[in-house]
Amino acid sequence: MKRHETIEFIIINNKYFLQVIYLPLAFFIPPSHFMVHNQLNLIYQLWIHTTVIGDLGPLELIFNTPKHHRVHHGCNLYCLDKNYGGVFIIWDRLFGTFRKEERKDEIVYGLVVNIESFNALYLQVKNTIINKCIYSVYG
Fold it and tell me: The Fatty acid hydroxylase domain covers which part of the protein (predicted)?
């Protein structure tokens, strides 16, 4: 299983990706509304990455909390490919990608396999190239 969100990849590509997302919004959303929404989202994303906050009770049924987000960043076997929701965890519950944090095992943060390049294009196509080579040999 591959993991995402290497910090190098985010830093390299974030400035390009966000422009593609935000530019069309300029045609439909007043700038003041966009700025408020953007700032609230940034605050929420900072808050969700804390390790200080524990259980939040019934809020955890709907919202992605720091407790859920720790699982998203873990490379423990039970954490892989889980808890994708940015704000609402309800989607993960509906689509089967939700996993609770297990207190018996400390979460190890990081990647299962380290990346060997910081080239954004290579990182996007390397699995396709590898799979093509395997299928050409083994049919």
Answer: 13-97
Sequence-ordered strand ranges (E) for 6-126: none
- DSSP per-residue string spanning 1-51: ------HHHHHHHHHHHHHHHHHHHTTTS-HHHHHHHHHHHHHHHHHHT-S
**Are 20 and 92 a contacting pair, CB within 8 Å?**
no
Domain count, the chain: 1
Distance of alpha carbon 6 from alpha carbon 120, whole angstroms: 11
Q: For residues 14 and 27, what is the distance between their CA atoms, to the nearest angstrom?
A: 21
Q: What is the pLDDT of residues 47-82, one digit of tens each?
A: 998 888 888 999 999 999 999 999 999 988 899 899
Residue 139 has pLDDT above 70, yes or no: no
pLDDT tens readout for residues 3-18: 555 555 555 556 667 7
Range of the domain at 46: 3-138
